[in-house]
Design brief:
By secondary structure, this protein is α/β, with parallel strands linked by helices. It has one domain. Helices cover 34% and strands 17% of the residues. The chain contains four helices and three strands, in the order E-H-E-H-E-H-H. It has a three-stranded parallel sheet. It is globular and about 45 Å long. The N and C termini lie far apart (41 Å).
Length: 103
């Protein structure tokens, strides 16, 4: 996409990884995995995050640039209960393999 003049940006909690694999622009956010745009039902907060990430398309000057977004998750990691009530289908289908990997 970049070669066809369509700039891209990744919203990520792990910008170091995306920088290593060659993502042109990373908008770093210190939010839990699975919640990169924010809390469920927080439409304004989600809009704010997306606007900041998209704005990076206009301000990024160098390849591999990382911009740390100014948002803070409202709970400590220990307090954050973001796991869904049901296991995801892909995890469920691979649960035996995952268990073997953790032994």
């Amino acid at each position: 996409m970049e070669e066809n003049d369509l700039p891209t940006v990744v919203l990520t909690p792990v910008p170091e990884f995306h920088n290593v694999v060659g993502i042109p622009r990373s908008a770093a956010i210190a939010y839990p995995f699975g919640r990169p745009v924010g809390e469920v039902h927080d439409q304004q907060g989600q809009r704010d995050v997306l606007r900041e990430a998209i704005a990076m398309l206009e301000t990024a000057d160098t390849p591999g640039e990382i911009k740390h977004l100014p948002f803070v998750w409202p709970e400590t990691p220990k307090e954050t209960n973001w796991q869904p009530p049901e296991i995801s289908p892909i995890i469920k289908a691979n649960l035996d393999v995952i268990k073997k990997m953790t032994v």
